[in-house]
């Protein structure tokens, strides 16, 4: 088992003919992901190394049965592409694009919440990897192996760092989900925690957050009420100054709200152990795994 | 991107939000000419991106030409909490009967715009809301539906607005919402929003934050960037397309990915050091970008050691190594570097660095080890 992407994934890539789009699509296919089609308006009828390209998502879904979309188009076209995928009946949309205008994200989010059959992950995210099954996005899959730790993160490279520390401690992963660092992510920690809770293969969950917003605090409440599996958390940005945007559009401390300390306290108050460094996260995970085995 | 007050008012005016007439000036002569044109009494207002201008003496009423000249002389060049006044706004004085507060913020938690209104304007709104939460009324708007007339009426009546002002205030809020959406703002705030003696409403102040990601659709707004107020090093980084924040410490930091860089700052602090900057070289950085990033980091004279913390995914470690080698060739840094390379093409990257045998460059295999080493070297 794994969550969201697996052997049933039939992937259609929007922006497949772009330089990055082609590179990562083929990378994903080489990993074993079932890439069935791509969309580039005006290039319908062409193919990318045997993957058929269509003018519209509707055509791609009709002809190839795609159920998952990866969005790899530039920011100015991304919102439209996400909405097109939803309109065509795609149930999982993974948006990698960075730099989408916030008001576009707002409209997309509010439209997608009207549709109970669709889930958006991202934008501005590294994608989802279910080791041994499917990789959709830009996560360097060779660093991860199959296992029982689910990882959910707001940051791409931080995920790799934590994943690497976990691997060195002997852990593999059920799935790794990057939800992205933008102000309006399609999926929250809570959405992904619920998926991991329901996934029989996932035994332990690692959650990597950062300063800004209140998603970690909300996740803490949710964990207390709904998650029976152990969760280890990490928060980046303890030393970040207030009022400055730290790279991610969402990573900004406004006054006392959204500080790393406040998030750590909220998580700990709800029974979640918080590592102070990525290395410590792996150590805590190892301790918990040890006690699970002996239990 | 934050706008100056008068830029915000001009943006409001384009969307029909009533604002007093005025004119910007960068010299005393320009200011006096503008005051003559507008007529007396008028107000001379310092244009800086910081609150508390009035208390600092940055806002003064001029009843005649002589006062306009005196006030402009005093305010231009004034320092307000570290911000130098390069520009003033000369505005027609208003006959104020009441001061309200209105704002629209991009509410990330609710994922909707949040409209707020209070009849207790003119002061610190956070204080007002804390003392009496009912004094600030709030309403979330579905962005696909937009701001409706009934929204405005509900806000106005709940806030206790005088009945004869409900209609013009509602019209102002609708126009403000229009400006918020069409200009793709993260915040528009009017404090005070005034009711004049003849029962008109107008925005007497304007605070506007625009979404940087949307500026490609608004070239006119992009041109409003207040370059004079920008830190030299931050400007240098922005012009090179780097995500950069200047900090107070002495350890220069370069990493890839915002989360990993933030984490690196924290780990350096835990090792007893203090970061001089946040610098995210971004995904897929090529050698040239790395060279430019080193240039930006070293332009800060406080930097006594530099840490490269790279976990390559889309970024290739060999490109990072090439950029560093190029930087050493061009800049010949005099401070020590600690480099940690992991991820895509890390073997090639480490080999390139080993072969180049750069002076004073130390490689470490873990993030924690690299942080400890750089703190030791930074002194």
TrEMBL record, chain A:
Q: Name one GO biological process term.
A: tricarboxylic acid cycle
Gene Ontology MF term list = nucleotide binding; succinate-CoA ligase (ADP-forming) activity; succinate-CoA ligase (GDP-forming) activity
Active-site residues, record numbering mapped to chain? 248
Q: Which InterPro entries does the record associate with it?
A: Cit_synth/succinyl-CoA_lig_AS (IPR017440), Citrt_syn/SCS-alpha_CS (IPR033847), CoA-bd (IPR003781), CoA_lig_alpha (IPR005810), NAD(P)-bd_dom_sf (IPR036291), SUCC_ACL_C (IPR005811), Succinyl-CoA_synth-like (IPR016102)
Every copy of the CoA-binding domain together lies at 4-100
- Pathway recorded for this protein: Carbohydrate metabolism; tricarboxylic acid cycle; succinate from succinyl-CoA (ligase route): step 1/1
Which UniProt key words apply to this protein?
Ligase, Nucleotide-binding, Tricarboxylic acid cycle
Kindly indicate where the leader peptide sits in this chain.
Answer: none
Q: What is its EC number?
A: 6.2.1.5
Q: State the NCBIfam families in the record.
A: PRK05678.1 (NF004230), sucCoAalpha (TIGR01019)
The UniProt similarity line reads:
Belongs to the succinate/malate CoA ligase alpha subunit family.
Question: What is the species of this protein?
Answer: Solirubrobacter pauli
Which HAMAP family does this chain map to?
A: Succ_CoA_alpha (MF_01988)
> What the protein does?
Succinyl-CoA synthetase functions in the citric acid cycle (TCA), coupling the hydrolysis of succinyl-CoA to the synthesis of either ATP or GTP and thus represents the only step of substrate-level phosphorylation in the TCA. The alpha subunit of the enzyme binds the substrates coenzyme A and phosphate, while succinate binding and nucleotide specificity is provided by the beta subunit.
> Catalytic activity annotated for this protein?
GTP + succinate + CoA = succinyl-CoA + GDP + phosphate; succinate + ATP + CoA = succinyl-CoA + ADP + phosphate
User: Where, by residue number, does CoA bind?
Assistant: 17-20, 43, 96-98
Binding site residues for substrate: 160
Q: Which SMART domains match?
A: CoA_binding (SM00881)
Q: How does it assemble?
A: Heterotetramer of two alpha and two beta subunits.
Protein name per its UniProtKB record? Succinate--CoA ligase [ADP-forming] subunit alpha
Assigned GO CC terms:
cytosol; succinate-CoA ligase complex (ADP-forming)
Automatic annotation (TrEMBL), chain B:
Keyword annotations for this protein, in alphabetical order, are: ATP-binding, Ligase, Magnesium, Metal-binding, Nucleotide-binding, Tricarboxylic acid cycle
Pathway(s) the chain acts in: Carbohydrate metabolism; tricarboxylic acid cycle; succinate from succinyl-CoA (ligase route): step 1/1
Mention one GO biological process in which this protein takes part, according to its record: succinyl-CoA metabolic process
Catalytic activities: succinate + ATP + CoA = succinyl-CoA + ADP + phosphate; GTP + succinate + CoA = succinyl-CoA + GDP + phosphate
- Family named by the database record: Belongs to the succinate/malate CoA ligase beta subunit family.
Which intervals hold domain ATP-grasp?
Answer: 9-238
Q: Which Pfam families match?
A: ATP-grasp_2, Ligase_CoA
Entries under Gene3D superfamilies matching the protein: ATP-grasp fold, A domain, ATP-grasp fold, B domain, Succinyl-CoA synthetase domains
Protein name as it appears in the record: Succinate--CoA ligase [ADP-forming] subunit beta
* Binding, Mg(2+): 191, 205
Entry keyword annotation includes ATP-binding: yes
> What SUPFAM superfamilies does UniProt report for this protein, alphabetically?
Glutathione synthetase ATP-binding domain-like (SSF56059), Succinyl-CoA synthetase domains (SSF52210)
Please report the organism this UniProt entry assigns to the protein.
Answer: Solirubrobacter pauli
The protein's role, per its UniProt record: Succinyl-CoA synthetase functions in the citric acid cycle (TCA), coupling the hydrolysis of succinyl-CoA to the synthesis of either ATP or GTP and thus represents the only step of substrate-level phosphorylation in the TCA. The beta subunit provides nucleotide specificity of the enzyme and binds the substrate succinate, while the binding sites for coenzyme A and phosphate are found in the alpha subunit.
Q: What Gene Ontology cellular-component terms does the record carry?
A: cytosol; succinate-CoA ligase complex
**Gene name tied to this protein:** sucC
EC assignment: the record states: 6.2.1.5
């Amino acid at each position: 088992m794994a969550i969201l992407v697996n052997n049933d994934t039939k992937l259609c890539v929007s922006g497949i003919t772009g330089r990055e789009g082609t590179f990562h699509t083929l990378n994903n296919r080489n990993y074993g992901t079932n890439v069935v089609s791509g969309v580039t308006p005006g290039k319908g009828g062409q193919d990318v190394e045997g993957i058929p390209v269509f003018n519209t998502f509707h055509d791609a879904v009709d002809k190839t049965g795609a159920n998952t979309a990866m969005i790899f188009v530039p920011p100015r076209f991304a919102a439209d592409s996400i909405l097109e995928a939803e309109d065509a009946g795609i149930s999982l949309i993974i948006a990698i694009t960075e730099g989408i205008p916030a008001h576009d994200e707002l409209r997309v989010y509010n439209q997608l919440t009207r549709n109970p059959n669709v889930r958006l992950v991202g934008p501005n995210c590294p994608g989802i990897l279910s080791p041994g099954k499917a990789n959709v996005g830009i996560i360097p899959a060779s660093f991860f192996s199959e296992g029982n730790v689910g990882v959910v993160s707001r940051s791409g490279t931080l995920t790799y760092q934590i994943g690497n520390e976990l691997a060195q401690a002997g852990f593999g992963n059920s799935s790794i989900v990057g939800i992205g660092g933008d102000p309006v992510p399609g999926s929250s920690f809570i959405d992904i925690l619920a998926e991991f809770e329901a996934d029989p293969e996932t035994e332990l969950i690692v959650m990597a957050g950062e300063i800004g917003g209140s998603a970690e605090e909300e996740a803490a409440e949710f964990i207390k009420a709904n998650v029976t599996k152990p969760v280890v958390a990490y928060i980046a940005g303890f030393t970040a100054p207030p009022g400055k945007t730290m790279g991610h559009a969402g990573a900004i401390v406004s006054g006392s709200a959204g500080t790393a300390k406040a998030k750590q306290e909220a998580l700990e108050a709800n029974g979640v152990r918080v590592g102070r460094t990525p290395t410590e996260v792996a150590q805590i995970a190892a301790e918990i795994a040890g006690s699970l085995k002996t239990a | 991107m934050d706008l100056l007050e008068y830029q915000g008012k001009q943006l409001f005016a384009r969307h029909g939000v009533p604002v007093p007439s005025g004119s910007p000036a960068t010299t005393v002569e320009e200011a006096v000419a503008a005051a003559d044109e507008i007529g007396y009494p008028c107000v001379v207002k310092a244009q800086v991106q910081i609150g508390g201008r009035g208390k600092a003496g940055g806002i003064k009423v001029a009843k005649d030409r002589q006062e306009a000249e005196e006030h402009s002389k005093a305010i231009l060049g004034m320092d307000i909490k570290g911000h130098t006044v390069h520009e003033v706004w000369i505005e027609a004085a208003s006959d104020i009967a009441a001061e309200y507060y209105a704002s629209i913020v991009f509410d990330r938690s609710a994922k909707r715009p949040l409209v707020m209104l209070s009849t207790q304007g003119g002061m610190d709104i956070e204080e007002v809301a804390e003392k009496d939460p009912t004094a600030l009324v709030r309403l979330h708007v579905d962005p696909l539906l937009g701001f409706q007339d009934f929204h405005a009426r509900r806000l106005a009546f709940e806030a206790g607005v005088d009945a004869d002002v409900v209609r013009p205030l509602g019209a102002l809020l609708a126009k403000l919402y229009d400006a918020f959406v069409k200009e793709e703002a993260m915040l528009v705030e009017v404090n005070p929003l005034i009711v004049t003696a003849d029962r008109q409403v107008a925005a007497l102040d304007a605070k506007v934050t625009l979404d940087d990601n949307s500026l490609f659709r608004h070239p006119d707004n992009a041109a409003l960037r207040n370059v004079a107020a920008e830190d030299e090093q931050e400007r240098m980084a922005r012009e090179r397309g780097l995500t950069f924040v200047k900090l107070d410490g002495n350890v220069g930091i370069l990493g890839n990915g915002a989360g990993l860089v933030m984490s690196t700052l924290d780990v350096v602090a835990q090792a007893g050091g203090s970061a001089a900057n946040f610098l995210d070289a971004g995904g897929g950085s090529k050698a040239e970008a790395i060279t430019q990033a080193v240039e930006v980091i070293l332009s800060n004279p406080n930097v006594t050691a530099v840490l490269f913390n790279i976990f390559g995914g889309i970024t290739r470690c060999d490109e990072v190594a090439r950029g560093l080698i190029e930087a050493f060739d061009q800049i010949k840094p005099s401070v020590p570097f600690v480099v940690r390379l992991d991820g895509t093409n890390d073997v090639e990257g480490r080999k390139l660095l080993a072969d180049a045998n750069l002076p004073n460059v130390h490689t470490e295999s873990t993030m924690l080890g690299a942080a400890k080493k750089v703190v030791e070297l930074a002194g």
